[in-house]
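Module 6 notes. Inverse folding takes a fixed backbone as the condition and produces residue identities as the prediction. Think of it as a translation problem where the source language is geometry and the target language is the twenty amino acids. Below is one complete input and output pair. Work through it position by position during the lab.
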């Protein structure tokens, strides 16, 4: 007798959730191995997707195999054989794989063995190649982010679109164009070395941190945070740290993300409203993530010292985040030390945003007047002209100085510049508070 429809539906739903979990774990390794074999990230990603479709079709009936990653790779390899057999570029593929796959009639097993041999190898090397290919400078920043989340994060086009609040066709086009750009530019599937590695690593780190930041402080929409993106970025950062254990700045980035992620439970109240850093309940911070972040920071500093290298931007930002993490209360924060770290970071980056953050630390260490003097020096910076945190910071300092009417104007301006609804509501409320305070004086 056939099982009830409800039982069958429940089983299929459970299997689909299992497939999603397997895909998130295995997608990067699967695509990396196929990309080395095919010498084409686009073709590798399509083969991996075909294997996923096969799993969705077969696993609900047959069950999840004991080694799902190997099952997916086997299916993808067989599809690769079919593609190579049909492909117009067979000669190049034959030379790369070292086999003549089309000169024999009964060659199915030989063909599979050839592809199997081509796809075998050091998966860590393959993953590193895939990371640098997805983040290649020939691509735009948006394309790097989308392709990285697709091939390394295992996200679907729809998931990426939802995460960044852009139409799904837009994301699909970015991914398609990214693959075409890599092919057109003849980008080799390989990891850079020497000076090229030093010049391209910052691009990879930037992509990962862009993903994390969009999750940590959403630039638009109704949500203050999108934790899924933070988790994806953390996973990518940890993978990269495992692939490049001697690179201090990789560990610096991981440290920064771990420490910042530790605050996420305390950053909103029960209604999802934002809670500013100094008002957060620090008992809700995730101390496991803090400890992991501090350990990664120690490793970054030690490696930089051993290699006689100066502390780089992500390591310095992690050290700043650690000042918050080590303080039991906001009052115990080493604000003077943090201001010094921001000064060091500003010298490296020449960034007005860093200078703005330094002004906040200076205000906490030496008073709001000292901070306001620094902020006022930034009001004409072109890159901050439409940056909502400039008037928001100025409004906060003015309010502390009792200049509530001026603070109200700054908060109102900041509210018009942000696209995040939660942040706009917070700034509007602060403007109202300042108006009330101004009216009572």
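Target side of the pair, the amino acids:
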């Amino acid at each position: 007798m056939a099982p009830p429809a409800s039982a069958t539906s429940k089983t299929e739903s459970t299997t689909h959730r299992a497939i999603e979990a397997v895909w998130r774990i295995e997608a990067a390794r699967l695509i990396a191995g196929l990309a080395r074999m095919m010498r084409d990230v686009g073709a590798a990603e399509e083969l991996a997707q075909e294997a996923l479709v096969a799993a969705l079709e077969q696993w609900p009936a047959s069950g999840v195999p004991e080694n799902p990653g190997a099952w997916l790779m086997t299916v993808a390899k067989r599809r690769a054989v079919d593609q190579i057999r049909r492909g117009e570029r067979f000669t190049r593929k034959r030379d790369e794989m070292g086999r003549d796959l089309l000169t024999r009639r009964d060659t199915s097993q030989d063909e599979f063995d050839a592809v199997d041999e081509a796809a075998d190898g050091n998966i860590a090397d393959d993953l590193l190649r895939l990371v640098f290919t997805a983040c290649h400078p020939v691509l735009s920043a948006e394309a790097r982010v989308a392709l990285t989340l697709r091939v390394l994060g295992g996200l679907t086009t729809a998931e990426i679109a939802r995460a960044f609040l852009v139409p799904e066709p837009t994301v699909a086009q970015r991914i398609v164009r990214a693959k075409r750009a890599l092919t057109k530019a003849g980008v080799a599937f390989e990891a850079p070395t020497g000076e090229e590695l030093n010049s391209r690593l910052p691009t990879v780190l930037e992509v990962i941190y862009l993903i994390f930041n969009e999750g940590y402080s959403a630039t638009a929409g109704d949500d203050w945070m999108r934790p899924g993106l933070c988790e994806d970025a953390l996973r990518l950062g940890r993978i990269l740290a495992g692939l490049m254990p001697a690179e201090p700045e990789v560990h610096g980035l991981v440290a920064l993300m771990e420490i910042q992620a530790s605050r996420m439970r305390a950053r909103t109240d029960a209604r999802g409203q934002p809670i500013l850093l100094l008002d957060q309940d620090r008992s809700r911070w995730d101390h496991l993530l803090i400890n992991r972040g501090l350990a990664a920071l120690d490793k970054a500093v030690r490696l930089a010292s051993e290699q006689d290298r100066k502390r780089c931007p992500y390591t310095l930002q992690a050290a700043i985040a650690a000042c918050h993490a080590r303080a039991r209360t906001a009052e115990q924060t080493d604000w003077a030390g943090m201001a010094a770290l921001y000064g060091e970071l500003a010298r490296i980056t020449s960034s007005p945003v860093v200078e703005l953050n330094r002004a906040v630390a200076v205000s906490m260490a030496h008073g709001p007047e000292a901070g306001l003097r620094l902020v006022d020096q930034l009001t004409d910076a072109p890159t901050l002209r439409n940056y909502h945190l400039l008037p928001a910071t100025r409004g906060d300092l003015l309010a502390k100085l009792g200049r509530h009417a001026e603070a109200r104007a700054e908060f109102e301006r900041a509210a018009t510049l942000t696209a995040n609804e939660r942040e706009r509501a917070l700034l509007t409320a602060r403007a109202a508070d300042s108006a009330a305070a101004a009216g009572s004086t």
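Reference fact for the lab report: Confidence is low (pLDDT under 50) at residues 99-121.
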